[in-house]
Amino acid sequence: MKHAPLVESLIEAFTCLPGVGPRSAQRMAYALLERGREDGRQLAGALTAAMDGVRHCQRCRNYAEHDLCPICQDPRRDAGLVCIVASPADVLALEQSGEYRGHYFVLMGQLSPLDGIGPRELGLDVLEQRLNEGQIQELILATGTTVEGEATAHYVLDLAREAGVSVSRIAQGVPMGGDLEFVDGATLAQALRGRRPFST
Ligand SMILES: [Zn+2]
């Protein structure tokens, strides 16, 4: 039996989500149509609002609704200290550690030439420009310890060296090959306090 075209296209649409195959997509569509019409309308509204209204902060590349995100706008934060992370989830994890009062730079990925992700895709040209402006005193690398994380860290290290900015790297407690978002707040706080100068 084939679905009605609208049901079919709803199922199809859900499969764009990470980790959602045809079966889960079908379950989601049925659930909303059967018992969650209001939830479904809210979901549709939230999706449209976010897709139209969310952009990247011009300073740190994190998600923002205005030119600057709330962290970059906050005058109480130390603009001389910038933590380099791979994703907005990592910013959240570090914020929840309660330990960090500096700014961020969010790469929205890691260097991965085979997947076509080079320095430009990660905004590293923007970072280079910011490093040369002279306001940044220290970079903290928190790009994770995967192969891509390592490659990214070394690229950023070279940029910082050229600009004469010191670089440290969080280390303790962050598992090898691990992603920051899965590390608990206490461990991250510890990792930030125990950061070490980074060099090759
Ligand atoms: Zn920002």
Automatic annotation (TrEMBL):
Residues 80-175 form the Toprim domain. A zinc finger (C4-type) spans 57-72. It comes from the Bacteria. Keywords: DNA damage, DNA recombination, DNA repair, Metal-binding, Zinc, Zinc-finger. The keyword DNA repair applies. It holds the Pfam family RecR_ZnF. GO terms for biological process: DNA recombination; DNA repair. CDD domains: TOPRIM_recR. Gene3D superfamilies: 3.40.1360.10, 6.10.250.240, RecR Domain 1. GO terms for molecular function: DNA binding; zinc ion binding. The keyword Signal does not apply. May play a role in DNA repair. It seems to be involved in an RecBC-independent recombinational process of DNA repair. It may act with RecF and RecO. Belongs to the RecR family. This is Recombination protein RecR. It comes from Alloalcanivorax marinus. The gene is recR.
